[in-house]
User: What shape does this take?
Amino acid sequence: MAPIFSSFPDKPDHNLLEIEILDLWERERTFEKLRELNRGGPRFSFVDGPVTANKTLAVHTAWGRTLKDVFQRYKALRGFDQRYQNGFDCQGLWIEVGVERDLGLNSKQDIEAYGLAEFARKCREKVVWSAGELTRGCIRLGQWMDWGNDYYTFSDTNIEYIWRFLKLMHERELLYLGHRSTEWCPRCGTSISQHELSQGGVYQDKLDPSLFVRLPLRDRAGESLVVWTTTPWTLPANVAAAVKPDAEYGLRENGEWVAVARYPNDRFAQRVPGADLVGLGYRGPFDDLAPAADVEHRVIPWDEVSLEEGTGIVHIAPGAGQEDFELGRVYGLPVLVPVDESGRFYDSYGWLHGLSTTEAADQIVGRLAETGFLLEAGVYSHRYPHCWRCDTPLIWRVTDDWLIAVDELRPKLLEANETVEWTPAYMGKRMDDWLRNMGDWNISRRRYFGLPLPFYPCECGRLNVIGSKRELTERAVSGLEQLEELHRPWIDEVVITCEACESDVRRIPDVGDVWLDAGIVPFSTLGWENPTWVENGYATGASKEISGADLPDHAYWEQWFPADWVSEMREQIRLWFYSQLFMSVALVGRAPFQKVLGYEKMLDEQGREMHGSWGNMIEAEDAFTRMGADVIRWQCAAQPSNQSLLFGFGPAHEIKRRLLTLWNSARFLVDYANIGGWKPDLDDLATGPPASELEPLDRWLVARTDALAQEATAAYESWRSPDVVRAFDAFVEDLSNWYIRRSRRRFWDGDELAFRTLWYALVQGVRVVSPVMPFLSDHLWRSLTAPCEAAPESVFLAGWPEVPEPNAALLAEVAELRRVVELGRQARSGAGIGLRQPLRVLVVEGARLAESHAGELREELRVKEVVFGAVEASELRVKPNLRLLGPKLGAELVTVRTALEAGDFVELADGGFQAAGHDLSADEVLVERRGMEGWSVAASDGVTVALDSRLDEELVREGRVYDLIHRINSMRKEAGLELTDRIELTLPESGRDLLEHQDWIARETLAVSVGCGPELAIAKT
Ligand SMILES: [Zn+2]
Ligand SMILES: [Zn+2]
Assistant: This one.
């Protein structure tokens, strides 16, 4: 007869097993069937944040992908109808810089020389390649998404939705062209906005020159101001020096003015408040260069001058610093912008012309030394912002950028954030802080392959903002015929009519911030205000032919907006979570998501960032082969999301070891069921095995299983995947190390109820953990339910286990029993006695619940007798736990300590003590119990056990029998005997006295005969 179950190999080959499961899912169309099953069910709306399509799948992306899939799979098992649309971020600096590298281009001039149309094509190619790679990687990870119907942010549809948003901002007068100083990347040739600066890796340690420079006062011969700077290139743009009006300034004997607070030990010839210096004129360090020649340099007041660093006098260059620019506005200072878009000095700067800001530093220092302006030059290490995309140190430039004013929206944004449930909660607080402090949203970038800003300013003063492709078509006077998609260069050729004066106007060349692209997603992908459903309506422009996504209609948006849940890393607070919230509040006045699960960063095992150049980067491909997707997912799901995940092969090894316990437990069932001819019944999953017939240990395992299902459900419902993993881990340990270990003989005897109980526990356990570990779970489900004709073919088509309220009293009883066993083992090892040596008596105190389990205690602890009662034969020593009691008792501690030392205390029922009139809890004292002669004692949490450790001849002989049985069974295994094989057993002469126990030995080793001979030997009969 064919075996009932297919047998299991010794251990799972995760990679192989997962590839087989992927293949089954595809062939059986498991995901499609699941969606079909849930269609029309209650809705759970998930909106995926777009992943940047410029790379292959990196292992750090796995954390977020895993969390998304875990909770979507869980919700699907609960019958929720869901959206599974994946998104790709496909334009802006991310893509451009990657393509520049591929093509060997390194400046905007290079790109323009290469040709914008060809460059746009290359950018699209890169996205198509990366989307393919990412899709492949995510499928391998086990993520179930509607692959092929992805949204691409560079689609015309997405762009049109943003245009519409911008037009609305314009109509509400929130859009403006700002003239201001911003962080600027000289390599990328564009400004960098406030939220881009908040990304990881932007602030890095950097060494810069540290210069003390003298600025001679005009009307005070021999006197000068001393300023400090770390950016020499800004000195040629100097127009003013700022002092703190209410701070004290001192004149050194050598004629130098500095803040007294900075040099408290210096001698000063004169001291005045900063206010007295305001208005004085001075000579600038580079007045010999044309731009500064006519500038009247003067001292201005500024309350924000720092007395923490520098000299207390600040060099002000409104054209090369943000605060400087704002001050310049207040005091009407001239603005000298020394460098161009690529960070090189303009021709008007004479001998500096063409130099970059770093190249210029040495020459500037040299010149200052020659002209006598330089007092001191050194180096200075500080945290300095770098371009998030190309790593170039940023500079400041004054430029014209398009901005959206936030002040009017700010209170509504704060209110909307209040409605969101953040996990972990501190991330919500971070969002709140950001919303309170953020400045206007800088939305323009001077780049190429990005969202074309639909702004057409006319000389008549009217700003024309186009809100849709249709509007563009209606107002175009030329260029429409060549418009392939809404990208440069094609869009730049379209000329429209000004709505005010009817003259021809052109678009500004700027493109948009990528966070506009991602922020509009809850509208553009769900069909907000779209009158009719358009098949393939999202596959427009650049995403034509690579996506099959539809553009739904407004009714659909009503159903799926706002998202019930979104999940991304913490960094996204100021990025995607913010841009979505902003656009959503602006468009419909409410938050686009109700619940957020945020998570921190993935680092390597040692807690370092992963970098290709450090050799600690783990390729996703490599991780799949060497650890398997289940193990990757397990590591990700087990990590509390408020701490960084230290990912690596070390932790993976440990997880595999634990999964092997699960595997071995299932294998045990399968092996013995095949021997005993036992077949499972699927109905047991609904009803449980028949409670009235079960033994207490079976009833316990059923309760334990039901408790697992309950705990895991609660954890999934509150987005706590680490609790699911922890609960499952503990469950497997109980199942294997208590139930199976204590029930082996029943399986051997073919006890049907034991089989039913274990099968129930394993299958329900696998169902509960399947969202975390889909491959192994589905494999085990398929293996264990294969004999049941009506079983759903996949665990994911089996729904969520409905379990009754577990028997809490029984669970508590066994938990206490296991605590006593644990203490018994401690007492044994305290006495230095091995586990196989039988002993006479165990006395148990304080474990009332375990009283009905004396038989199990006798077996587990190998004692002849268990007595429940007071452990008298022990000496108790109690000391204060100083760390806790010190602060609590203060001076009283001495009295308490003396009382404890004198043995003058009363033990309380909860494990605490009373001494010198104080109640001390169990953790406030350190308890040591010493057994009386011949007794070994162990205690914790109010339970005490005492083990009679005295041996006699009979006990010693029994101990030898246990050792012998253990050795023979090892020999059976080594000889490759089947579980059912019988043997002839020969004992060595030295063991002749053990023949007294030959029936016992024969029973435990399946021996048909026991004799004596020269050495221990077994022979298969
Ligand atoms: Zn850059
Ligand atoms: Zn006009």
In short: The pocket of zinc ion (ligand 2) is lined by residues 458, 460, 462, 498, 500-501, 503 (CB under 6 Å). The radius of gyration is 38 Å.
